[in-house]
Amino acid sequence: MIGERIKQLREDKGYSITKLADLAGVSKSYLSYIERNVQNNPSLQVLAKIAFHLDTNIEFLLGEDLSPKVRVDEVLDEEWHSIIRSAVDEGMSKGDFRALKELVRSNKWREERGRQKDYVQYDSHKKSNIIILHIDN
């Protein structure tokens, strides 16, 4: 599913695999593996890089629906403007804001997934006390 979404968005933007790989800073072969679902568990960092250049978010790539777009003037009141001005004055860049935004999104997604897993475990009453320890010499 991740691979199909990335490929569709990439093609919609008119990017070749090489172009998107270069923009996102990942190898062409790795991106190809993701698109063909050979690699179906890319890291959140890789997904964030790819999502940024495809103008989407990690949640969409993972199968969640995109949030509706919000008009800036409906959300940014004077307090928001003050917070942003202060952050910029302290040296935050656009890239810093984007990275922070993706971090917040991925944390929210991870928390939601954790709640869903807790609910499933609670409902099924399955618990395991097995610990597997592997030590390489």
From TrEMBL:
<dbReference type="GO" id="GO:0003677">
    <property type="term" value="F:DNA binding"/>
</dbReference>
<dbReference type="InterPro" id="IPR010982">
    <property type="entry name" value="Lambda_DNA-bd_dom_sf"/>
</dbReference>
<dbReference type="GO" id="GO:0046983">
    <property type="term" value="F:protein dimerization activity"/>
</dbReference>
<dbReference type="Pfam" id="PF01381">
    <property type="entry name" value="HTH_3"/>
</dbReference>
<dbReference type="GO" id="GO:0003700">
    <property type="term" value="F:DNA-binding transcription factor activity"/>
</dbReference>
<dbReference type="InterPro" id="IPR050807">
    <property type="entry name" value="TransReg_Diox_bact_type"/>
</dbReference>
<protein>
    <submittedName>
        <fullName>Helix-turn-helix domain-containing protein</fullName>
    </submittedName>
</protein>
<dbReference type="GO" id="GO:0005829">
    <property type="term" value="C:cytosol"/>
</dbReference>
<dbReference type="InterPro" id="IPR036281">
    <property type="entry name" value="SinR/SinI_dimer_dom_sf"/>
</dbReference>
<feature type="domain" description="HTH cro/C1-type">
    <location>
        <begin position="6"/>
        <end position="61"/>
    </location>
</feature>
<keyword id="KW-0238">DNA-binding</keyword>
<dbReference type="InterPro" id="IPR001387">
    <property type="entry name" value="Cro/C1-type_HTH"/>
</dbReference>
